[in-house]
Amino acid sequence: LRAIVDEPSGLLGRAEVIGNPVLRWEPAVTGGEPLPELIGRMAAERPDAVAVADGAGELSYSELWDRASRFAAVLRARGVGRERRVGLVVGRSSWWLVGMLGVSLAGGVFVPVDPAYPADRVRFIFGSADPMLVVCQGKTRGAVPPEFADRLVVLDETDLAAAPDEDLPRLDPRDAAYVIYTSGSTGTPKGVVVTYSGLGNLAMAHIERLAVSPSSRVLQFAALGFDTIVSEVMMALLAGATLVMPPDEDLPPHASLIDALERWDITHVKAPPSVLSTVDDLPERVETVTAAGELCPPGLVDRLSPGRRMINAYGPT
């Protein structure tokens, strides 16, 4: 207040509202556990439950954990350590999950890129993030810019059974978990570093508010480079539910939403209102529907919400 009175013509945004002692204060370390530890606990509690279903079949929690741990050892042998960035250009499948969790277990920071992105956007993201390695599949290798060809790790061509014995690092909640890039709709895309701190609480809030349980089947529908994918993955795996990652041809716009939900026996779906509006009603099996990415018109709520939980999640980014 004194600063404003002393300089009434000054910019309000430049006025100090807290003192230097407060500015120098550092918060205590959060008690939250990093994502890999939380998923590892679920793998120990529910080893035989189905963690992920895709076009090739299913992986149990123990199988997912085993593959991810072995892949983490491969990455450690290639030099990945705490907070080293690793690109992730993998299609919608259990391999994406193995890659993401493997990078995290190795201590790395995953940088997800949708293989369907335009080449210029992929090149910009990797030029900005400068990942030490880029994880891909055989079928997504062509989406990786040529200048990163010497950094490739082709996940589905890696012999995980021959993975070396490597000690995996103990992660700190303040460690970076991933880097997500904004859409760039207001200019140049910006990379945002997200730490493990708070991710567990975020997942638990989703699990509670969206009523995710071990019997749930959560559809992974978000673009593979969009931040929503992290919440879809976390709320499914930390609830002991099944994350469903269908091939692109089973999802809109290649297939109807109603067909996808019925074919994959989905209980929880998050989608833009423009996609949700293509159906008159949802299968009875769908317990929770979340509208995100666009404004949700009231008429859509009136049509789809009776008999189930409906959440408007537009605008968190």
Automatic annotation (TrEMBL):
GO terms for cellular component: cytoplasm. Gene3D superfamilies: 3.40.50.980. One of its GO terms (biological process) is secondary metabolite biosynthetic process. One of its GO terms (molecular function) is phosphopantetheine binding. InterPro entries: AMP-binding, AMP-binding_CS, AMP-dep_synth/lig_dom. Residues 43-317 form the AMP-dependent synthetase/ligase domain. It holds the Pfam family AMP-binding. It comes from the Bacteria. PANTHER family: FATTY ACID SYNTHASE, NONRIBOSOMAL PEPTIDE SYNTHETASE. This is AMP-dependent synthetase/ligase domain-containing protein. The lineage of its organism: Bacteria, Bacillati, Actinomycetota, Actinomycetes, Pseudonocardiales.
